[in-house]
Specification:
Helix content is 42%, strand content 18%. The longest helix has 22 residues. The structure holds 6-O-phosphono-beta-D-fructofuranose.
Amino acid sequence: MKIAVLTSGGDSPGMNAAVRAVVRECIYNGIDPYGVKFGYQGLIDNNLYKMNVYSVADIIQRGGTMIKTSRCQEMYEEAGVKKAAETLLANKIENLVVIGGDGSYKGALSLSKYGINVMAIPGTIDNDVACTDYTIGFDTAVNTAVEAISKIRDTSLSHNRVSVVEVMGRNCGNLAISAGLAGGAEAIVVPEREYSVEAICEKMLKGKDRGKLHSIIVYAEGAGDINEFAKRVEELTSLTVNVTDLGYIQRGGSPTAFDRILAARMGSMAVNLLIKGEKNKAICLRGGEYVAMDLEEALSMEGVFDEENYNVAMRLSI
Ligand code: F6P
């Protein structure tokens, strides 16, 4: 038996730990593991190699992905999917573990139609895969953002300024919500909820009357133009407003223990399910339990927004 593993889409801290888990679980069970370089692009280009126990030594603590990743446009076309499947079959590999976000899951589902047995593991800092409570990399990214927000808070307080901090997440506000809640933000702006800049400013001015010296606003990248928002805040409050885009630092760094454990459990589970002959599943953590869900069903799920954390954050940010 052979199992290939690839990482796809934006990288996330803990992807390496997941690759390690897949490879080591394969070796433990006498299966040949193959690493695909640059995600689906590596399948299209026949860029894969046999891995061994040493291939994944000393990577558990490293951010990024040692087998590389890419955003592969060809996988959105039938010809690309066919080519990717043919590469696997030509190498006599019928099993594939895909680590990525829901775009990568769609690629995996397409490959399953060509007879490839796939397992999908959620790896993205966005925490926007509906079937799982957590994606690998999210916890690390939240911690990175909170650390940055704490530093911004220091200087914001020294100067009595308003700091608007942009975090990633594509169209999803979950990273902003967790970072804002943990960072004690005065406001969190996310694409999923309408907001009134006037109401946010009114709250800040009331806070100022009470003696509050500065404010932090966490702004999700999907919520629109942060500079226009900041300009409007400045106009309405006459306070000095600074904008910080945390950018790609959120995607790097050593994964937290939580992300490493998530990666280890999910990678191990994916391989064990393939050994049992199961296929086309999404590995999820749901309500504290690791479960495997039908991939097509997992992809049809909606509702990733962290409503409860958002509501609590709103109530606490008086
Ligand atoms: O999906 C992860 C993510 O970092 C998003 O938060 C962000 O919108 C996007 O990837 C950035 O993608 P790229 O690396 O292609 O600029």
